[in-house]
Structure to design on (472 residues):
């Protein structure tokens, strides 16, 4: 009996064609029609499963059409989208790290819409090198003899290790066996490169003698790693870089340094720690440095290798080079950012630099502006301007608080958790920080336009809540 009833329910489900007939999508033959038909089939299949379990009875054909449309909508719209960064973390890896400047985007547009001379030398009419355009600019900015760019800094480190020390030993201080997010660990990268890791020193202290004692005929490279996301403090020390370099060169060995952020301009935080610049590290005699394109540099994902020509020539010939190579769009963006450093005022035109160097006055002024905008339309909300501590993020100045200003928001009679969720899922998502009963919007990374959107979003939230209350 039960089985018969179940069959009856299943038979009452509409046919694929009937549901398709009620959709605007997929009217034309072709891919869109297949997509629509597949989606209808999958929704009906789910429903069939539910009916077998005694669930989903009485779902109307209109509801089925709605379910199909919802799934098709997700496929029709772009998932990767702009968000508003109210966290105050300038280099937020989950939010795409560095926003681009005007010049970088212009370069991208120039190159993206047509053909370009990526590997074509216009003067000679012959094959050229894709690295030549950025290499010279990087050299001018850092004092390097030569430069090379790959997909990201992780790839740059891998290439340097594989290219200079495959089958040989690489000495790394125990205090510098870094793990950064996304499971990039120096020991693992070393293993992948085919080089052998030799740990020297202790976690807190490494002496020059530790390196010296570990050098033997199998040694291929000394690797220094910038501890970009942690600090070892207290009874701790590392030998001077120039002494490590002198030791290595005495043994005819190269020194490479993974700088992580790799800044062109000096940057220091409230506690006085500073990020080393690429130029000063190279000036200390390091043979090769590697760093990211989308951290302090403020461009796109890229890994820059800068240093002595004889080592870079070796890397250029390595088979991994082809697998790790950078694409033309990234090169265009990177070159735009490099032009900003060379000829512009990067503190103004490179967004990451501008945001990191904003003055306390400018930040508190903008926080007041946002608070006034919100108060003007949300009279009964509790809105205040407060100082906050943010972080630079992206493996830059760890443990260094970056003092900033925020607007603290508390809507009346609704949980702040609900407001946070509403803003996060707004048409332009707004990412803010919940702290106790308040929602904190740090203004460091906000544009004028973002401020308008935040005001609109909060007003929309308030209107929706009020209308809900009115109905209830
Ligand atoms: C960020 C970082 C990397 C990885 O750089 P990506 O460009 O993200 O690949 C490697 N090493 C250090 C020390 C870093 O800080």
């Amino acid at each position: 009996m039960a089985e018969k009833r179940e069959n009856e329910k299943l038979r009452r489900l509409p046919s694929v064609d009937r549901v398709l007939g009620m959709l605007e999508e997929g009217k034309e033959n072709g891919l869109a029609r297949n997509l629509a038909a597949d989606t209808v089939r999958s929704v009906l299949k789910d429903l069939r499963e539910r009916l077998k379990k005694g669930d989903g009875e009485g779902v109307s054909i209109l509801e089925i059409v709605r379910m199909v449309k919802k799934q098709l909508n997700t496929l029709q719209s772009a998932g990767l989208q702009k968000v508003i960064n109210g966290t105050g973390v300038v280099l937020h890896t989950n939010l795409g790290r560095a926003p681009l400047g005007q010049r970088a985007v212009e370069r991208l547009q120039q190159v993206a819409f047509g053909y370009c001379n990526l590997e074509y030398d216009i003067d000679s009419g012959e094959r050229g090198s894709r690295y030549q355009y950025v290499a010279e600019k990087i050299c001018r900015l850092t004092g390097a003899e030569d430069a090379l760019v790959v997909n990201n800094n992780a790839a740059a480190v891998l290439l340097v290790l594989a290219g200079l020390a495959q089958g040989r030993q690489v000495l790394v201080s125990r205090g510098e066996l870094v793990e950064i997010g996304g499971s990039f660990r120096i020991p693992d990268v070393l293993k992948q490169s085919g080089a052998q890791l030799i740990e020297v020193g202790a976690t807190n202290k490494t002496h020059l003698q530790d390196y010296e004692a570990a050098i033997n005929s199998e040694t291929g490279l000394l690797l220094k790693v910038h501890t970009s996301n942690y600090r070892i403090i207290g009874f701790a020390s590392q030998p001077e870089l120039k002494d490590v370099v002198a030791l290595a060169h005495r043994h005819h060995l190269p020194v490479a340094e993974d700088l992580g952020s790799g800044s062109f301009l000096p940057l220091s935080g409230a506690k006085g720690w500073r990020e080393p610049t690429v130029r000063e590290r190279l000036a200390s005699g390091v043979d090769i440095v590697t760093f990211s394109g989308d951290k302090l540099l403020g461009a796109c994902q890229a890994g820059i290798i800068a240093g002595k020509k004889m080592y870079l020539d070796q890397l250029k010939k390595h088979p991994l080079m082809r697998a790790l190579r950078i694409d033309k769009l990234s090169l265009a963006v990177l070159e735009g950012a490099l032009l900003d450093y060379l000829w512009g005022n990067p503190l103004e035109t490179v967004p990451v630099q501008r945001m990191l160097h904003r003055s306390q006055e400018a930040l508190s002024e903008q926080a007041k502006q946002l608070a006034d905008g919100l108060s003007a339309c949300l009279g009964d909300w509790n809105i205040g301007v407060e100082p906050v501590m943010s972080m630079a993020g992206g493996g830059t100045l760890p443990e260094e608080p970056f003092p900033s200003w925020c607007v603290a928001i508390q809507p009346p009679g609704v949980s702040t958790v609900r407001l946070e969720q509403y803003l996060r899922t707004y048409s332009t998502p707004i990412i803010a920080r919940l702290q106790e009963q308040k929602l904190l919007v740090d203004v460091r990374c906000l544009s004028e336009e973002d401020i308008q959107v935040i005001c609109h979003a909060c007003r929309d939230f308030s209107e929706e809540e009020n209308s809900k209350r009115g109905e209830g």
